[in-house]
Design goal:
Layout (H helix, E strand, L loop, with lengths): L23 E4 L6 E4 L20 H14 L3 H19 L9 H16 L6 H14 L2 H28 L12 H9 L1 H12 L5 H64 L1
Antiparallel strand pairs: 1-2
Helix pairs in contact: 1-2, 1-5, 2-4, 4-5, 6-7
Length: 272
């Protein structure tokens, strides 16, 4: 959901995060929901539904560019293209603006950045790019071909499964660990079931760390509530004690006055 007037649209919690050059996704400190912070100076609304973002399929497109560079037979061209692909992928992951990006593709670049934020496993393709360069340098042409075929298959599968993962998993958090390889394998098999299985295994979060953090926050809130309740009980006891002392003082004064008046009336009656 998009941040409105610097506040969370769900719980009205103030958001102090400063906008960057690209859209940022963050979790509200109040309700924990996933929010989108538009880039600085954005003039148009950003697509806030993660499952509906438009991307240029960075993993597949960049891997295709590397494959075309390999087809030229030049190690220099392959290295340059792979280096550019690495920089572009890194900028998307860090949600920074890509220099020289045509304005017509900026919206898709923003969508690609959002998707990598939720599904960072496309960064694994960098390993294939590096392997292709190394194999080309040592003259292992057959391994280059095998690696290229495997890379394109994995890139295409990632592109397809990433779209399904965001659409079917109903993500509520962007805290996916890049090195959570078991989750990556599960997503490659079945994106929808992978997320549901992780929820059953590790709670409502996406990682064990997120689950523990949520449990720690709950314990901290419960401890604070207990401390507040204890403080309220102490204050109540003090107030009740003060009220009881005041009532006893009033009773003593009243009894003293009643006794004095009774004595005075008796004396006046006796004098007559």
């Amino acid at each position: 959901m998009k941040i409105v007037d610097g506040k969370c649209p769900y719980c009205s919690q103030s958001i102090n995060e400063k906008p960057g050059k690209a859209v940022k996704q963050l979790n509200c400190e109040g309700c924990g929901r996933l929010l989108n912070l538009p880039p600085k100076g954005a003039s148009q609304a950003v697509n806030t539904k993660v499952g509906e973002v438009s991307t240029f399929e960075p993993g597949l497109v960049l891997s295709t560019c590397v494959g075309l560079a390999v087809a030229t037979g030049s190690i220099l061209i392959t290295s340059i293209v792979a280096g550019i692909a690495f920089v572009v992928m890194l900028l998307l992951w860090t949600q920074e603006e890509i220099p020289g990006m045509p304005s017509a593709l900026k919206e898709r670049a923003t969508g690609s950045s959002e998707r990598i934020r939720v599904f960072p496993f496309e960064l694994y393709l960098i390993v294939f790019w590096v392997a292709i360069i190394i194999f080309s340098m040592v003259g292992w042409g057959s391994l280059v071909g095998y690696t290229l075929c495997l890379m394109m298959f994995v890139a295409a599968l990632m592109s397809m499964q990433a779209a399904r993962f965001m659409r079917e998993s109903k993500m509520t958090s962007s805290k996916v660990n890049l090195f959570d390889f078991p989750l990556f394998i599960a997503i490659m098999r079945d994106p929808g079931k992978a997320f549901n299985k992780r929820k059953v295994e590790k709670g409502e979060g996406i990682s064990q760390e997120h689950f523990f953090n949520a449990a720690a926050e709950k314990e901290e809130k419960e401890a604070k509530i207990a401390a507040d309740s204890e403080e309220m009980a102490k204050n109540r006891a003090i107030k009740l004690g003060e009220r009881k002392a005041w009532e006893e003082d009033i009773d003593q004064r009243y009894n003293k006055w009643l006794e004095e008046e009774s004595t005075r009336l008796i004396q006046e009656t006796s004098g007559r």
